[in-house]
Amino acid sequence: MTALVVLAVLLLxxxxxxxxxxxxxxxxxxxxxxxxxxxxxxxxxxxxxxxDLIPNLVETVKGYAxxxxxxxxxxxxxxxxxxxxxxxxxxxxxEGMLSGALKGLLALAEAYPDLKASQNFSELQAELSxxxxxxxxxxxxxxxxxxxxxxxxxxxxxxxxxGVAGFTAREYFQAPDEERGPVQVxx
Length: 187
Fold this sequence. Notes:
Layout: H1 2-64, H2 69-84, H3 87-111, H4 113-117, H5 119-154, H6 158-165, H7 177-180
Helix pairs in contact: 1-2, 1-3, 1-5, 1-6, 2-3
């Protein structure tokens, strides 16, 4: 009988704390994964906002720059690609292409003074600039959440729980290579 009591006490002293620690680690990983999902959702909201602005911007430019069909088509095509992109890496690449196409569209204002003077165009341009800032902040917030989560699933002892429970590393939302280079200014 005493051997059974000793065994029960040992189980209670060893197994229960391990189970509690494992549960706490698991719950922490779930919270971190939820933070990553939330951060991605916030980034996605800002990207959608940007995508929703583009048709209005294209229509405004169309009214003034009817001979710039190629630039307008490039923006529309890049927007379509961005809308169908899956995952942070694919989304980042599509958004990079869209940024390049938008730069071309916004550069048209220099060639068309009436467009540049249009209040509607100016308001859309300001709204797009604000949205770009929000996207940059959301991207940073998402990447911070991914860093915290990825570090958590790779460190001992949480990596043991993560491996058993199927937690996998998440991708960062990184700017495409062409956006990382230095900005060239020409006068």
